[in-house]
Amino acid sequence: MSEPVVLGIESTCDETAAAVVRGRELVSNVVASSMDQHARYGGVIPEIASRAHAEAFAPVVSKALADASMTLGDIDAIAVSAGPGLAGCLAVGVSGAKALAWAAGKPLYGINHVIGHIAVTQLQFGAFPEDTLALIVSGGHTSLLHVRDVTRDIDVVGTTLDDAAGECFDKVARLLGFPYPGGPHIDRHGQLGDPHAIRVPQGLTQGRAGKQHPYDFSFSGVKTAVARWIEEQRAAGRDIPVDDICASLADSVATVLARKAIAGCEQYGSRTLIVGGGFSANSQLRAKLLEVGEAHGVIVRIPKIALCTDNGAMVAMLGVNLVEAGITPSDPAFPINSSMP
Ligand code: KG4
Ligand code: ZN
């Protein structure tokens, strides 16, 4: 087959997205978000997100095909995120993708969204190096993965034992009065503050007590420490130094993520670190990863922000990898899996 053309569909959370990828080329990329409808609730409301997917699905897929000057007939395969994510949201995208695949007689792949965050880096940096580590950070996951073959051989090196990095930022942002999602606000204010103004613990620097998990993360203690500090300041009638809090929190989280990811690369003999997920838009993390990577001779592949956040390109790119590897398409009855490992 010449370069496979794959339509990718994404609906795990608040983005309804579709994209067409040919080989390593992003041909079209359409993203609709229901975030504005969730902001006032302080988090994504699954029922609202599912309804928004049902409304946006057909227009978004049509636009992705039209922008690519294609019809379904021009596509070799369809890929869709089957998990992890919100069940009702996944159900809309997966049902829609199944209907399209059935109607057009195309193979369909139900893929793992988190692995899509790894795959998408090929659109900017080309083929994967032989053996690589991937740090995937978002509002829902914080994972360090050893990638030997993106289509069938990935091991978990470390994961968060409680909150994800983005979740920790969103919770602190809420205490500071920022709207959801607060991560980008912490980022912006953090750039104006002193990262050493407040002592924020670097949660779980060693690993689970008594166990050998040196690459696991924990961010719930970090959030609690910051929350307690803010409370004390308020109780004492002192002003809240918002910029310094944001800078100190961002520095703590970025430092521990970068240190463990690069140490993992050294242990696994990987010269390259792949980074993805919405939280990798964070400027403090990007700077810290590049700095620590350079100091240890590890090349850090952080894609541009439009490829870090949830999109259809990540799904389509992984779909291309599966077609190229000759992987059998998913059974038409494949289930959604909201807690897919
Ligand atoms: O991958 P994503 O778009 O959705 C999930 O699968 O969760 O990630 C969203 C998360 C949110 O927690 C958001 O606050 C965080 O990424 N985020 C940021 C930044 N941009 C997005 N956190 C810190 N700094 C940013 N610039
Ligand atoms: Zn994601």
From TrEMBL:
Fe cation binds at H113, H117, D310. Residues 25-316 form the Gcp-like domain. It is found in: Cytoplasm. One of its GO terms (biological process) is tRNA threonylcarbamoyladenosine modification. Pfam families: TsaD. It catalyses: L-threonylcarbamoyladenylate + adenosine(37) in tRNA = N(6)-L-threonylcarbamoyladenosine(37) in tRNA + AMP + H(+). Substrate binds at I136, V137, S138, G139, G140, D170, G183, D187, N282. Keywords: Acyltransferase, Cytoplasm, DNA-binding, Endonuclease, Hydrolase, Iron, Metal-binding, Nuclease, Transferase, tRNA processing. One of its GO terms (molecular function) is tRNA N(6)-L-threonylcarbamoyladenine synthase activity. InterPro entries: ATPase_NBD, Gcp-like_dom, KAE1/TsaD, TsaD. Its EC number is 2.3.1.234. Binds 1 Fe(2+) ion per subunit. It is an enzyme of class 2 (transferase). GO terms for cellular component: cytoplasm. Its cofactor is Fe(2+). Belongs to the KAE1 / TsaD family. PANTHER family: TRNA N6-ADENOSINE THREONYLCARBAMOYLTRANSFERASE (PTHR11735), TRNA N6-ADENOSINE THREONYLCARBAMOYLTRANSFERASE, MITOCHONDRIAL (PTHR11735:SF6). NCBIfam families: gcp_kae1, T6A_TsaD_YgjD. Required for the formation of a threonylcarbamoyl group on adenosine at position 37 (t(6)A37) in tRNAs that read codons beginning with adenine. Is involved in the transfer of the threonylcarbamoyl moiety of threonylcarbamoyl-AMP (TC-AMP) to the N6 group of A37, together with TsaE and TsaB. TsaD likely plays a direct catalytic role in this reaction. This is tRNA N6-adenosine threonylcarbamoyltransferase. It comes from Bifidobacterium mongoliense DSM 21395.
